[in-house]
Amino acid sequence: MQFIPKAGACLTTTNVLSGAGRVKWMVREESRASADNGWRIFSHIDTSEYLADSANMKVVDYNEVCEIEPALIGIWDLPVGSDLQLVDEGQGIKIVETATGRVVTPRWPAP
């Protein structure tokens, strides 16, 4: 399904793709290739040991992770340097800046 036209590719963990872990952290880095939009998507169960194994990371279309977690649609155009986490305290999902805890208001719909 295409939520965002020409969204580009992102890097995510196999835990996110398999459904073993739910989306928790989102970091936007400088793009490393023309198709790379810079987003790195991690799950709540990813450990540093798990992330150290490159076989646990996959390049996928950003729309694929949006299908898994629709809240990602609203952060797509945030700038490089964004470091976010998805918080669900039983009152609905919110996205917050990791460093400050400030709630990020997603853009709906994404461009």
From TrEMBL:
Pfam families referenced in this protein's UniProt entry, alphabetically: Imm33
Domain Immunity protein Imm33 per the UniProt entry, residue ranges: 10-95
Protein name: DUF2185 domain-containing protein
Species this protein is from: Kribbella sp. HUAS MG21
Biological classification of the source: Bacteria, Bacillati, Actinomycetota, Actinomycetes, Propionibacteriales
